[in-house]
Specification:
Length: about 110
């Protein structure tokens, strides 16, 4: 089992941690800034290093947190890659991510969360 946790920070920084087992809920909770977290709908792929990978993205949906433009752009790209219209329409931006966003990428066993 092998996986990587990417943490996209609102300041544009990306942190990376490697795992040989599934990260527990406490680790993910700490990385998203505490509190409850939820899966980001449609954020199921990411362009990382040398290609596009299947992923699971989670965040804390608290609009009082700082806008995360890097994560919002990556989410938009994932939505467009899956055939969705993305996060921008005729009226403007329809949704965005805030705070740290955790993205999990890994082998089949790791991704069987």
């Amino acid at each position: 089992m092998y996986g990587i946790m990417l943490v996209l920070e609102p300041n544009g920084e990306t942190r990376q941690r490697e795992f040989t087992r599934k990260p527990n809920v406490e680790i993910i909770t700490a990385e998203v800034g505490g509190g409850n977290f939820e899966q980001v709908p449609g954020f199921n792929s990411i362009i990382f290093e040398d290609g596009r990978y299947k992923c699971v993205a989670v965040h804390r949906n608290d609009k009082r947190m700082r806008l995360n433009l890097q994560a919002t752009k990556a989410w938009h790209v994932a939505l467009r890659a899956s055939g969705h219209g993305g996060l921008v329409n005729d009226t403007g931006v329809v949704d965005y991510l805030v705070g740290p966003v955790v993205i999990l990428v890994g082998d089949r066993e790791f991704m069987a969360l």
